């Protein structure tokens, strides 16, 4: 007479099957209440710092004269920074290109951890694009900067880098 075996971790290891396959993708676990509160505080603090940098920091000043400043031509500013003969210093190029990417990486990590609905890359990029469009428009309307479509593209690249970082770190820990 054969006894029924229970599908336990030790039985699976004896059989060479470390864990059952459910067919579901690995996703980051939803943080607990305290972890969620800490992530939310971190997101709010980082967002406040970002708004400060975008509207007040880096010696920004209000330019009340002339028309609104904007660029709606994709890659125009990015091409300008890759043109070595345009007189723009290397640090300024680096700050503009890499800075616009790096400062949005935390959003690609934090937002999917806080909202399950933002674990889809398309949903995350759509929501992020709306937020970035709002910030860019406010910079132009308040005359503390310009609306630049290239900033939107670079910022979204940062969100995407954060998302990729989140998933690569999470999946690496699950293997």
Write a concise keyword list for the protein shown above.
175 residues; 2 strands; single chain; two-stranded parallel ribbon; 7 helices; mainly alpha
Give a description of the structure.
The protein is mainly alpha-helical. The chain has one domain. It has 7 helices and 2 strands. The chain has helices spanning 9-14, 33-55, 76-82, 90-102, 105-114, 121-141, 149-174; strands at residues 70-71, 147-148. α2 (33-55) runs antiparallel to α5 (105-114), α4 packs across α7 (149-174) and α6 packs antiparallel against α7. The longest helix has 26 residues, at 149-174. The chain is globular, with a radius of gyration of 23 Å. Mean pLDDT is 86; it is low at 1-9.
Helix and strand topology:
Blueprint: H1 9-14, H2 33-55, E1 70-71, H3 76-82, H4 90-102, H5 105-114, H6 121-141, E2 147-148, H7 149-174
Parallel strand pairs: 1-2
Structural class from helices and strands?
A: mainly alpha
Note the overall shape.
globular
Strand order in space, largest sheet:
1-2
Mean pLDDT across the residues is 86
Order of helices and strands: HHEHHHHEH
Total count of helical runs of at least 4 residues: 7
Q: Measure the end-to-end span.
A: 38 Å
The share of residues in helices is 55-70%
Q: How many strand elements?
A: 2
């Amino acid at each position: 007479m054969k006894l029924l075996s229970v599908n336990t971790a030790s039985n699976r290891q004896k059989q060479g099957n470390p864990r059952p396959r459910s067919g579901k993708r690995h996703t980051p676990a939803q943080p607990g209440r305290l972890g969620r509160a800490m992530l939310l505080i971190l997101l709010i603090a980082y967002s406040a710092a970002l708004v400060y940098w975008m509207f007040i920091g880096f010696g920004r000043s209000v330019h009340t004269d002339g028309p609104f400043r904007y660029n709606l031509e994709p890659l125009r500013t990015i091409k300008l920074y890759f043109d070595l003969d345009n007189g723009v210093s290397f640090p300024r190029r680096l700050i503009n290109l890499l800075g616009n990417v790096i400062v949005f990486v935390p959003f690609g990590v934090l937002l999917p951890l806080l909202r399950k609905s933002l674990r889809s890359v398309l949903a995350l990029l759509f929501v992020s694009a709306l937020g970035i469009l709002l910030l860019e428009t406010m910079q132009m309307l308040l005359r503390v900067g310009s609306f630049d479509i290239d900033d939107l593209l670079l910022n979204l690249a940062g969100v995407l880098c954060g998302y990729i970082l989140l998933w690569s770190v999470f999946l690496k820990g699950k293997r």
